[in-house]
Design a protein that fits this description.
It holds the Pfam family PGK. One of its GO terms (cellular component) is cytosol. Helices cover about 35% and strands about 15% of the residues. With about 400 residues, it is of the alpha/beta class. The protein has two domains: about 15-170, 3-Layer(aba) Sandwich (Rossmann fold); about 185-380, Phosphoglycerate kinase, N-terminal domain (Rossmann fold, 3-Layer(aba) Sandwich), CATH 3.40.50.1260. The strands form four sheets. A six-stranded parallel sheet has the order 5-6-4-1-7-8, with helices on both faces. The protein has a six-stranded parallel sheet with strand order 11-10-9-15-16-17, with helices on both faces. A three-stranded antiparallel sheet has the order 13-12-14. Strand 12 (about 265-270) and strand 13 form a beta hairpin. The model has no long low-confidence stretch (mean pLDDT about 95). It binds adenosine-5'-diphosphate and 1,3-bisphosphoglyceric acid. Adenosine-5'-diphosphate binds near residues 219, 292, 323, 352 and 353.
């Protein structure tokens, strides 16, 4: 990496605005997967050891520029404090008088967590005034939020223009591992794309079709493709305006000799809950008023076989609503196939995919669990990550 890191600057006694990605799954005010918090700890510890005054900032969810009580970072501060074994102070704003007081009263080695930066409309707009306000809190900017590096926001990009700006250790490690896996990929090279962020992810498929041997589609993303094939999808997740794009990808796959795998059967439910009535149906028989929430057993078998024969697999996005046990089989099946294929280098991307392998107890069997879903995909596509580009060159 040609960017400066925290090893290249003297941080003793400096106030450091460190952008992390603490966008973690939460339920009833508790963090349900702490992968991203743990991943930031080496950088936080390194800053503490260097005698920096550590000011952490993150987004959580998509509050769209207003305060959403359930998306405050207070539970994250509590969990981080337990993991670090030291106090983590917390303020209820991300800039302004309260945040300044808290930042100015830090002593060397102390850690402060600011409030959710997405409570402010200027964050996602990359408003220069907000970027300046963040910068006013600190002497140095560190970006360790690999998972948000594909976003050009005030706390990931704008701020870097106002302070000395360097990468954290997680950012460095992610780029190193992903870069090595992709520079000369071992083949067969398989990409598995699922999850629910259809709009975000469908575009990357285009580029992946130039690189991979096999492309496997699952999760909520699949039903736009199912519709593109002319089948009804009932109440399943669907992006109407991406149907033509999905069609063009299937044609491109053919032209590029990429094996394109879609579900042949699915588990459908009459309600989005564990207690719903469910049944397995063929992909061309999703009943009206039912929604497909997982891939079916025949599909799982095929996907497992493709995985076991691959040398490099990148996996982004669960195959179904794995948070509900009734719809976790597909995601578990894919995860287990990767865990069993010891010859396969597996790169897992995305908060929810990471949470899934953690939930199934197979996280330690994966070659690399990336903290970024969209970010790792964009990096692997060869796109520039704004949060990285803005940092100081070596
Ligand atoms: N068939 C489906 N219908 C609705 N939601 C789904 C479906 N399959 C997966 N999901 C949801 O997708 C979410 C994860 O999507 P996404 O954020 O794109 O993945 P990641 O965080 O791994 O990048 C999970 O919460 C999961 O419940
Ligand atoms: O969870 C994230 O992305 P991911 O789901 O693609 O891994 C990052 O925290 C970025 O969040 P965003 O997609 O709301 O900008």
């Amino acid at each position: 990496m040609n960017k400066k890191t925290i090893r290249d600057v003297d941080l003793k006694g400096k106030k450091v605005f460190c952008r992390v990605d603490f966008n973690v799954p939460m339920k009833d005010g508790k963090v349900t997967d702490e992968t991203r918090i743990r991943a930031a700890i080496p950088t936080i510890n390194a800053l503490v050891e260097q005698g920096a005054k550590v000011i952490l900032a993150s987004h959580l969810g998509r509050p769209k520029g207003t305060v959403v009580e359930e998306l405050r970072l207070t539970p994250v501060a509590e969990r981080l404090s337990e993991l670090l074994g030291k106090e983590v102070k917390k303020v209820n704003e991300a800039f302004g008088p309260q945040a300044e007081d808290a930042a100015n009263s830090l002593i060397e080695g102390e850690v402060l967590l600011l409030e959710n930066v997405r409570f402010y409309p200027g964050e996602e707009k990359n408003d220069p005034e907000l970027a300046k306000a963040f910068a006013a809190l600190a002497d140095v900017y560190v970006n360790d939020a690999f998972g948000a590096a594909h976003r050009a926001h005030a706390s990931t990009e704008g701020i870097a223009h106002h302070l000395p700006a360097v990468a954290g250790l997680l950012m460095e490690k992610e780029l190193d591992v992903l870069g090595k896996a992709l520079s000369n990929p071992e083949r067969p090279f398989t990409a598995i794309i699922g999850g629910a962020k259809v709009k975000d992810k469908i575009g990357v498929i285009d580029n992946l079709l130039d690189k991979v041997d096999n492309l496997i589609i699952g999760g909520g993303l699949a039903y736009t493709f199912v519709k593109a094939l002319g089948h009804e999808v009932g109440e399943s997740l669907l992006e109407e305006d991406k149907i033509d794009l999905a069609k063009s990808f299937m044609e491109k796959a053919k032209a590029n000799n990429v094996n394109f795998y879609m579900p042949v059967d699915v588990t459908v439910a009459d309600d989005f809950s564990n207690d719903a009535n469910t049944k397995v149906v063929a992909i061309d028989s999703i009943p009206q008023d039912w929604e497909a929430l997982d891939i079916g057993p025949e599909t799982i078998d095929t996907y497992r076989k493709v995985i076991s024969e691959s040398k490099l697999v990148i996996w982004n996005g669960p195959m179904g609503v794995f948070e509900l046990d009734a719809f976790a089989k597909g995601t578990r099946g894919v995860g287990e196939a990767l865990a069993e294929s010891t010859d396969t280098y597996s790169v897992i991307g995305g908060g929810d995919s990471a949470a899934a392998v953690e939930k199934f107890g197979i996280a330690d069997k994966m070659s690399h669990i990336s903290t970024g879903g969209g970010a790792s995909l964009e990096f692997m596509e060869g796109k520039e990550l704004p949060g990285l580009v803005a940092l100081n060159d070596k």
